[in-house]
Structure formats: structure tokens, C-alpha cells
Fold:
Amino acid sequence: MKAFAIVNLKGGVGKTVTAVNLAAILATEYQRRVLLVDCDPQANATQSLLPPGEYNTLAGLLTLPDAYYDDLLYRSSIRGLDVLPADDELRNLDVDLLEGERPRLTALRDLRDAIAEDDAYDVLILDCPPALSPACAAAIAASTDVIIPIKVDAYSVRGMHELTAQIDRLRQIYPDVHIAGCLPTVWYKSDTVEQGGALLRQHAPCKVFRTHIRRSPKVDESTWTGEPVVSWSPRSGAAQDYRAFVEELMDHVLEEAWEGGDHGAEV
Structure:
């Protein structure tokens, strides 16, 4: 089973939008059984996929020794896509560390292993917060592959080097974690952006996906509707780009994980 952590230490780079649309495309267009784990206390992925309400959340999994994942999962309106929600209780984990309490940072890794053993899902997607918090570290440790959405500006490119260095430190403990690559997002036609993209591909410390996600007002609209942009505006540039990205991801990362398996449609 593949587990993708969608990570960037900067906000505004399309991290949650990428996680939600990756999950939706895999569930609806590739018939995969997908669990999206919202690791961000802002809970934007939860708000995108579940109606308002009271939920058991990831904070319980990270703090309660007897929490079982079945009690934390909720079906979204998208067939084949379930959600483990987040809430602002995740922020308390930072305070707990200062007070000497340690959250169960292996809990998400244990969740991944339990899901694989039960053959409950084909893909796990972890939407990380924009900071290397306990929840973010736990999500990276639980992943098999890290995807880094990146806006092509100088601050983001410099920040990516810091992020990959932090991931490399975690890989010393969890060597099965790999960086799948960085995904240029919020892309628009400009000489500066084109030049920045070329420099990124030349100097990035990891693979850069061929696909880039175009900036589109339809992405912002979709956040109000509670739908991924691929269903809200399927013909928009961003929706087309996310489909192209998933196709590229399938070719280079996912297909080998399902070789010999019989989950869902053929790829």
C-alpha cells in the first residue's frame, strides 16, 4: 500500500487542494479505496470532504493508547474516499511537548500497517500542516512517499531545501520514506515564473514532476462548495492539470505498488 504525505512548511502553496484532488481522482477515476488523513489543525481537508459536525479526530489517535482506527473514519460523499478528520486539538500536541508529554508519534505508522494488514484501503493520503509539528513528523514517518507542492518563487524554493533536509533526518529513523518529488503549483504564464521553474528543475534536491498546476479562480470557488475542483469545475485548467499529475504519478510511483494486485480497475 502506498502512503503519500503532502508536505510543505509554507502555506499558500496548494497543499490541501493537492491532497483533496489527488484523493478524489484516485477514488473516482481509478477506483481505488482511499483514506485521507487530515493532519492539519486548520482542518481544511476535513471541511472540504465532510459536512459540519462533531467527529472523533486524529488528535485522539495520537494521544489515546487504546484508540482504534475504525472509530475515527468517516465516509465522504465521494464513493471510495474516507476521511480521518482533524480539529484544532492537534495544536495542543505542541503544548504537550513543552510540558513533557509525548504524543504517540508512531500512531500513524501503526495505522498504516493495520490498514495494510486488514487490506482496508489501497492508498493513504496524509495532508500535513505547514510546520514541522508532531502531527507533521508523524505523518511523514507513516508515509512511503512525500509529495511537496511548491509555488515557484524564491522563498518557496529556498524553503524546499530546508524541508528536504528535515525529511532526510527523519529518514535516518524511517529509511523506507522516500521523496516522490515536488509539484509546481499556482503556476501562471510569466517570464519570471518560467525562469524560476527552469532553475527549480536544475537545482532541486529531488525529482520535479513534469506537470505543473495552473493558477485558477475555480480552485478558490471549489473551497466554498465543499467539492474538489476536479468535480466542481472538471474542465478548468487546474482540474486538467491535477488529472495529468495523477497520471504521471501512476506511471512513476503507483503502478509498481499495485503490480500483481487486483484492487479496482486496471491502470
Observations:
- DSSP finds eleven helices and seven strands in the chain.
